[in-house]
Amino acid sequence: MLDLDVAARMGTTEDFAPDLAPANAPSSPSALPLAHLYERVSKHVTPAEWPLIVRDVEAIERLKKQRNAVVLGHNYQAPEIFNTVADIVGDSLALAREAVTVDADVIVMAGVHFMAETAKLLNPSKIVLMPDMEAGCSLAESITAEDIRLLRQRYPGVPVVTYVNTSAEVKAESDYCCTSGNAVKVVRAVAKEWGVNRILMLPDEYLARNVQKEVPEIELIAWKGHCEVHERFTPQDIRDLRENHPGVVVLAHPECPPEVVAAADYAGSTAGMADYVRDEKPARVVLITECSMADNVAVNHPDVEFVRPCNLCPHMRRITLPNIRRALETMGHQVEIDPAVADRARLAVERMLAIR
Ligand code: 13P
Ligand code: SF4
Questions:
Q1: Domains of the chain by residue range
Q2: 20 CA distance to ligand 2 centroid (A)?
């Protein structure tokens, strides 16, 4: 069910007063306003709901022009955001890369807080807006800057690679950042550059263990952080999916437990999974990850049958069209990072981006 959040629009400026659903909304999809966009979300939005969504979409487009703003949308965003107002979509790595090149004064992050912080780190002079500051991440919550300082005392001289799903304070204590899309490459590059065979890889235990399988020559020391969405998948889920959906190709995100990844046919970042579907065109596929991802990938692949177990990320779900609209109306909530922290954190992210 869509969160139309009408009440939350109260108290905005007169220009953007709350809208009411038109009494006679057309029911034929081709007669709907912005019908070309409706086509992309028609499996998730009813014709009756669409006119309300259109009002937010049109207001956001108007505001984007006024503010010279762009919306970055993560692959887990709800279809009615991903397919309408997001100007640039992708995985964490793509969003970090795009944040560097973006030609706008304002960046709205349709994603979670660490993604907005990364965009701000790479664009200190731009305004970065977070539609809901509470959109966090269980991995980012699992480790603090103090934890890293203590680990450095315990493992002197061992380089620290932290997952992008961390706070700026944690990145500031790290040597390199990585994402699920480049973790293996980063770990190999760090081992070579530093001439070491031990690396602290934090805070996602499962990502570290999955990467470890690819780099047996390097010892990865892990932390106990987990993604609350991906840790719920089990090898039994995969067996059941294969039994109930014969021939299904199983793609898993590397934040899943290693036993789940081992039972899958392919593991990769959200972009890696989307590329797999595009390139391999499996007849039937299941994405073992946050479930809006399948909704978004399926739009471009009508011939592929998507099996859809559903684990939603509650943090990603906090971002809605009404709160994106409100962010642009009020220019809130602006992401700020202490400059002393930002300078060190930026270094870790830039070192990652320099690895090709
Ligand atoms: P990606 O970097 O693969 O987009 O993943 C981000 C994330 O939060 C996965 O849970
Ligand atoms: Fe964090 Fe997991 Fe949500 Fe990704 S899916 S943002 S790792 S809680």
A1: 4-135+316-330, 140-227, 230-307
A2: 34
